[in-house]
Amino acid sequence: MMPSKNNHILNWFDPKLIEIAQHLEKGMEWWGVYVYTIHNTEKRIISAIVAAETD
Length: 55
Known about the structure:
The protein has 55 residues and is mainly beta. It has no helices and three strands.
């Protein structure tokens, strides 16, 4: 699959992310919290990838 010019990928990683999503706070203890969104403007689809882990 070829990358599309219609996809916009955003990396929302920022320690301030837990200020708006408190349930992710525990994940900051171990390796962090990562949130990515992919917006396909042609198909009008938004996808999100969220990862958080604690020990």
